[in-house]
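Sample pair:
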Amino acid sequence: MRPIPRFPRCALPFVLLFCAIGCHKGELLTFNRPMLGTIITITIIADSREAGVRASEAAFSEILRIEALMSPLRAGSDIARLNNNGGCTPVPISNETFALVEKSIDVSRATGGAFDISFASLGRLWRLGSDDFRPPDARQVARSLPLVDYTKIRMYPDSLRISFALPGMKLGLGGIAKGYAIGRAVEVLRREGVRASIVDAGGDLKVTGDKYGEPWRVGLMHPHKREILLAIAARDGDSVVTSGDYERFATYNGERYHHIIDPKTGFPARGLASVTVICSDPVLADAYATAFFVMGGVRALEFLTTHPGITAIFIDPNMKVSASRKLKGRVDWLEKTEVEWF
């Protein structure tokens, strides 16, 4: 195993672990491109470099199309138009965006509102990337908090339109659109004839096939150190997503504020440092990673008892680690770690 290179903080709770390559059929190729507010890394085994370049370009084009459709920062996107006009009138949007908003609301219902795409209504208050960051006071948050309520999103399936019950509401698909984008990119790679790949969007990744007969291995970053904590053997079709309080944060008066907002309080969720979700659907893995972080370990564990298709790893701020028993034998710890299996 080669040494793991250092990555910038925005790049990811997950990094790929590469091993030396012997004489095997197919060429291992990696392509990187900034998209979706992060670095997209596409790793494939292709019959030739030319085929790999063609397939990766098609996958990047698909991600770019989805970004143009769903990014609130892109003028004319579905979400930008909805955020600008949804409080006044129903806004027509694409069937893809409509379906993803519907799926988001389904996750919100299932998780008791721990996942809520209307959290973006608080977005203007939390500017973690600002050089002069200071957290909003409780009164500011309290004034905007009624706008964070997925039940106030009005859906019109017959006409593919959406509106808001309250003026000032806004949606952000950052907690689910990356999962959708990597799923679509994987489908494009398959269509181009790629049988083995990893599409990684800033820690949201999906695996297909294997690596020359061995499972792809992905590494989970230590929440408190710039190093890998563990490696997971990812199976064909696995989606692996991590949400952590170390991904995007700012410090004010010695206290750290991260980007995962609890929809109930309007402030960063507390109780966990990292949540990793593994399941087949990258959209659900993306959404549940955020939801479980907000729910905290106890509520998330209760949820998992009724959803056997999902496995997870929870790490709290004191480095207490809990992991699904189904992951035994698939996880290699790169430093000695006590694990509570559930």
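The chain has a mean pLDDT of 92.
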